[in-house]
Amino acid sequence: MIRTEELLLNVGPQHPSTHGVFRIIVKLDGEVITEATPVMGYLHRGTEKIAENLNFTQIIPYTDRMDYVSAMTNNYVLVHAVETMMGLEIPERAEYLRLVVMELQRVASHLVWWGTYLLDIGAMSPFLYAFRDREIIIDLFNELCGARLTYNYMRVGGVKWDAPPGWLDKVRDFIPYMENKLVEYDKLVSGNEIFLARIKGVGRYDAATAIDYGLSGANLRCTGVDFDIRKAEPYSLYQLFEFDVPLGQIGDCYDRYRIRLEEIRQSLRILKQALAQFPSGGDTMGKVPRVIRPPAGEVYVRIESPRGEIGCHIVSKGKAEPYRLKFRRPSFVNLQILPKLLVGETMTNLITILGGIDIVVGEVDC
Amino acid sequence: MQPWLNQALTWSNALVLFLWVVVFLFIVLGFVTYAIYFERKVIGWMQLRIGPNRVGPLGLLQTVADIFKLLIKEDTIPRKADRVLFIIAPALAYIPAFSVLAVIPYTQKLYFADLNVGLLYYVALSGISTLAIVLGGWASNNKYALLGGMRSAAQMISYEVPLVISVVGVILLSGSLNLRDIVAAQDGGWFWDWNFLPQIIGFVIFIIAAISELNRTPFDLPEAESELVAGYHVEYSGFRFAFFMLSEYVYVYAIAALTTVLFLGGWHAPAPFLDFVPGIVWFLLKFAFIVFFLFWIRATMPRIRVDQLMGLGWKVLLPISLLNVFLTALYLELFIKN
Predict the structure, then answer these.
(1) Residue A303: per-residue pLDDT
(2) Does B299 touch chain A (CB under 8 A)?
(3) What is the pLDDT of residue B132?
(4) Is B121 within 8 Å of B130 (Cβ atoms)?
(5) Would the pTM of this model clear 0.80, i.e. be above it?
(6) Is A124 in CB contact (< 8 Å) with chain B?
(7) What gap in Å lies between CA A3 and CA A29, rounded to an integer?
(8) What is the pLDDT of residues A12-66, one digit of tens each?
(9) Residue A25 CB partners (closer than 8 Å, separation 6+)
(10) How far apart are CA B338 and CA B320, in angstroms?
(11) Residues of B with CB below 8 A from A195's CB?
């Protein structure tokens, strides 16, 4: 008797392409996926619960460990929420430093994504090129705040360290360097027939679906929805700078790929303008009470992280610790659409689609 | 070699033949050892790394250390695996890989077997390796290995066909299946007399299909690391794993040698005034270039998708290789016959 049977395949948590400890159980009919169930929580550390017993300065290092590929934006969303609550004034120099590190972080984060995505698709060299260039940014951060990945750089009311002498010039030198490298990336990868065949038309969804699933960042903009919080609800100093929001048309993996590469270019553009107007002096810490006690009430702020809308909701009872702290993590929300996208795709496309969503498991599980 | 092969088999003959095989085995193992080193170095340089440089001078003993490590590793066989098949599969992968080397002529004088059907022998035997990969994937009783094995079967069948048909043009031009005669037929003095220019379509298809047969990037789907973890050999460890790797690199040797023989004029010098250089040097140069080319491709290309792989094999390579046969035959009929 010959009969066929669906194959239940457990992808992860130990799998080279799930970017950490993400697990997905797929039912395979041949190589075609009929059902996909993501399983999360392998990296859950209870950040939000822990935060309820910490004062706000102590929470900042925990945000570093959420999205460890983009720690600076996570730092910012927390301090921004507290500052909004308390109505604090931020010195101009501190605000500029924050903006510069956030945009550098966006470049670094997209470089990690670019490299690992190409690695998922089977090309190994781009991964090493991307990490070579990211290394420069990491070194810059290291010089600025003494850490390479978990910076703990921002504080409520400013930043911890001023830029060391010559640091801004190094950032200035990095911009043309990175622009040249982007041309090189395009030459090496973006026109490769095999690569295009792998990602064009894969993982498509339309704007309505994307909004229904609450997607944000490149995952939303690839469908043509023009929503970038830096433009829509400018925070920090973004209203001062000119930059474009790259949009896609059909919402496939290729659009997401193109958008992220273009966002690197736009970030460099912002950096260039920011460095030109950088204030020559001033404090890096504003006037902040010794113990940070936000007034009783609630606040929700959101910013554009490299992965999408990262939000911070603080409920305060007027104490030094938050009553409740909630992070809206873009990786987690963007991941919701995965089971829908995977049905009917092959095992190979699972990796292409999962990589295209750009998750960081530290942020998914938080 | 030839005189012994043509004599009746006696004990002394058998011993001599056996010794030859052992000597050749060591040459091949030496090649594999340093091909791996070469690959790691070349790809390392292409990827801004140094590559192995710790074990021995310039890291030359790195592969030796790796092989030694695999030798002394615990030999694990999963409890639910099909024991017999699991043990047979690595050997079955290696035997044809080594056997096909018998027909490769290195120079006018240096060759092992002078088979009339040399090319046919090569193609027929190399097909058996597929069986080993499917067997290994099946016997492991692992889902990833099974998927890898199945992909491999589909891939090898799809690419065996264009590979064989792409060399038909060469056979037509030289009028022989004997690899020595094929090389001899390319002796015009200049490099444009080699088959790769008159048979440029066949050459390109052959290279593509050969890379696919080797399971190397961009066609490394059976062992696609990012999807199938390691593919068919995911459950293998120690020296059984080494045998799969070994046969893969022996095939690199075989394909590089075969390409040199079929398309790059074997031992012939590229120009008449370079004839003073011994043929073996030319052979090795061309051979090394093909090996380098295979490694270079690996550093550059992403992996193709499995359905696109099938599409490329059946819808593109096969019709073009058939067209190539037709054009070659037409050319021979119109211009050469009369």
Answers:
(1) 92
(2) yes
(3) 85
(4) no
(5) yes
(6) yes
(7) 12
(8) 787 777 777 888 898 888 778 898 888 888 888 889 999 999 999 999 999 998 8
(9) A8, A9, A10, A11, A36, A37, A39
(10) 27
(11) 302
Inter-chain residue contact A125 with B300, CB threshold 8 Å: yes
| CB spacing of B303 vs A122 below 8 angstroms | yes
Which residue from A minimizes the CA distance to B216?
Answer: A122
Average of per-residue pLDDT across B242-248: 85
H helix intervals, chain B: 2-6, 11-46, 62-72, 83-99, 118-126, 128-139, 143-166, 168-174, 179-185, 200-213, 225-228, 238-262, 279-300, 306-311, 318-331
Task: List pLDDT tens digits, range B300-316.
Answer: 888 888 788 888 888 99
| Residue A82 CA neighbour count, 13 Å, CB half | 31
- Residue A34, H or E segment: strand A32-39
Distances B108 to B179, B182, B292 between C-alpha atoms, Å? 11, 12, 25
Cβ distance A122 to B49 less than 8 Å, yes or no, reads: no
The Cα of A257 is separated from the nearest Cα of chain B by a number of Å equal to 15
ipTM for the predicted complex comes to 0.79
Alpha-carbon gap: A198 to the closest alpha carbon of chain B (Å): 6
Chain A residues closer than 8 Å to B307 by CB: 346
Spans in chain A with pLDDT lower than 70: 1
pLDDT at A157: 87
The 8 Å CB, 24+ separation contacts for A65-68 are: A65/A150, A65/A362, A66/A327, A66/A329, A66/A362, A66/A363, A66/A366, A67/A305, A67/A307, A67/A310, A67/A329, A67/A331, A67/A360, A67/A362, A67/A363, A68/A149, A68/A150, A68/A360, A68/A362
The pLDDT of B34-49, averaged and rounded, is 88
CB contact under 8 A, B308 and A197: yes
What does the alpha-carbon distance between residue A311 and residue A323 come to, in Å, rounded to a whole number? Answer: 17
Q: Report CB contact under 8 Å: A125, B305.
A: no
Q: Which of B303, B308, B316 to mutate against chain A (most A CBs within 10 Å)?
A: B303
d(CA A227, CA A207): 11
Query: Contact B147/A31, CB-based, under 8 Å?
Result: yes
Q: What is the mean pLDDT of residues B52-77?
A: 86
Interface contacts A/B by beta carbons within 8 Å:
83
Beta bridge partners of A325: A314
Spatial separation of the C-alpha atoms in residues B132 and B148, rounded to whole Å: 12
